[in-house]
Amino acid sequence: MTTLFLGFIFGVLLQSARLNRFDTISGMATLENYKVAKAISLAIGVGVILLGIEIGLGLATYHIKPFLLGGIVLGGLIFGAGMAILGYCPGTVMVSAGEGSLDAMVGILGGLAGGLVYTLLLPSISGVLGPNLGSGSLYTLLGDSPMIFYPVTVLCGIAFIAIAFLVHKLDKSQDKSWVIAGTGIAILAAFVFHFADRPIGASTFFPYVADNIFGAVNNEYFKQISKSGNWEVLFLAGGLLSGLVISLLRKDFRIRMIHDNWEKYKGNSFGKRAIWAFVGGFILIFGARMAGGCTSGHVISGGMQLAASSLAFAVFVFAGLLLTGKFFYLKK
After folding, report:
1. How many CA atoms lie within 13 A of 287 on its CB side?
2. How far apart are CA 193 and CA 322, in angstroms?
3. Using CA atoms, how far apart are residues 181 and 31, in angstroms rounded to an integer?
4. What is the pLDDT of residues 46-100, one digit of tens each?
5. For residue 212, what are the domain limits?
């Protein structure tokens, strides 16, 4: 029940700045909307400081994802491309589905297919994911020197916060809803680190559910993801519920397939959007599983830990997002 509630709060925070919306995320891909970048940078910055305090007080532990070079580079690029095409992340797609977005629902189906295919193909592509460069982070470098580690940690957090506000200044936008959302997500993530002893995350849900549905459970990968997958089922169920409840309360629940930004660049064909939503969802989750995480579980949670793998993943995600945005969203 607690995990469901945490997922609900996660969804509320995303909706408070409309970070879950197709127009917001695809707008980042076309460099027309910087709200996602600002919120992520702020969440990482605040989270770095909060998690550093928790670690110093012995209230939490680090969960650093390994730096699988092939998985981080290729997975990041693929994930970014899927994020641009689908217009959602693994977590935001559930919230938008709750708001009535049909393309998000199709994207979820694509994500389930991508998760299943990844499970089946993993034995054949595992060599592509390496080499494993270890689980490096600022803590592994300076953890034995607390007098240096904690001041540097705080400075890194301040740097990420400063980047967020610098981008906002360059953006010249008056909307500051991302400040509350980014800060709230950092607090939520720090809470989960303490009470659940794990980072927040979303992409493991897809192979976990798909593997269960199709009986692909007798393999090592399913055993590895079972605990996280079970947690994320409840977490994302809370996100889905928040999408429904908050949109009904705001009176903006709407069944729709075509969003403004999609129509602007790709037209209003229902079928075309459905096909691309499925494809986007498929490659989004396939890329996430190659890298071992997604926007929430890798970029934000890993960024809060100043993990080398997560910071590198973020770079390749944004590279894939912007490159795809440049060539996929051409003016009609």
Report:
1. 29
2. 31
3. 20
4. 999 999 999 989 999 999 999 999 999 999 999 999 999 999 999 999 999 999 9
5. 2-328
Could you give the number of structural domains in the chain? 1
Which residues does 271 contact at the CB level (< 8 Å), separation at least 6? none
- Whose tokens are 């995350």? That residue is 201
HSE toward the beta carbon, residue 221, CA cutoff 13 A? 23
Q: Is the pTM of this model over 0.90?
A: yes
256 SS3 class: strand
Report pLDDT digits (tens) over 289-310: 999 999 999 999 999 999 999 9
Radius of gyration of the chain (CA): 19
Distance CA 133, CA 205 (A): 26
Phi and psi at residue 215, to the nearest 5°: 75, 20
What is d(CA 281, CA 270) in angstroms, rounded to the nearest whole number? Answer: 16
CA gap 153, 151 in Å, rounded: 5
**Residues 137/62, Cβ–Cβ less than 8 Å:** yes
